[in-house]
Amino acid sequence: MAVIGIMSAMHEELAAVLAAMPDEQRVRVAERDFWVGHWHGHDVVAVLSRIGKVAAATTATVLLERFKVDALVFTGAAGGLAPHAQVGDVVVATGLVQHDMDASLLFPRYEVPLYGRARFDTDPALSEALAAAASQVLSDPAQHLGAQAIADFHLLSPRVHQGLIVSGDRFVSTTAESQALQRSLPDALAVEMEGAAVAQVCLDYGVPFAAVRTISDRADDDAHTDFNRFIREVASRYSLAILSQWLMHR
Ligand code: SAH
Question: Which residues line ligand 1 (CB under 6 A)?
Fold first, then answer.
């Protein structure tokens, strides 16, 4: 049976996933805890991704080499870049770019040297299935979130977007940087710190990859007042519900 790798960016997300797995066993590799078990009858290995491109790439490599996952799904939060990617929306990546890759004396800006490409595409079928699950979950946020969280974070009609996510080793939290990213990568819906690196590793191994991110902030000067509360009360609940919905119908 196919083994599914789940990489969660946040502790709260992973905790929610583990609570849904009845029989997980911990296997420690490369200073990371991999949780091997089942969810809705599927073989699953769940792990905390860790933050940043290199850490996430190491985690992904272990999932592929050691645990032989046949598909890899990343869930986490991201900063919204496109004006319509609002806090509480979900972005399912169709492709990812490392926005901090620049070997431009030798290669075009953003191109990863020796890969001949800047953009790493996700698996269309996997991404479509996750987007369908996300649409289902977001059609009724009250089923997954508390009334107070919905009111405080203004989550009355969250939307699912599909498109480009950009990744780099920076938490983007100034309007100037966010606008610079939007100017140079106008298709980018959201920015985070891991996805494009994991997509690159999955391309190397020929394993289907998908990334689902809940917009937690607008990557601008309006510092998110309560990032941790948003992760706990919104993003981790969406991740759990989306993954559960997807695996139930897979
Ligand atoms: N307090 C958190 C740390 C969050 S770091 C913790 O203890 O886990 C930010 C995480 O959210 C990274 O995984 C990154 O991918 C994502 N992220 C959310 N908003 C972002 C932004 N504006 N810029 C870059 N990454 C962002």
Answer: 9-10, 51, 76-79, 171-173, 191-194, 216-217, 219, 228
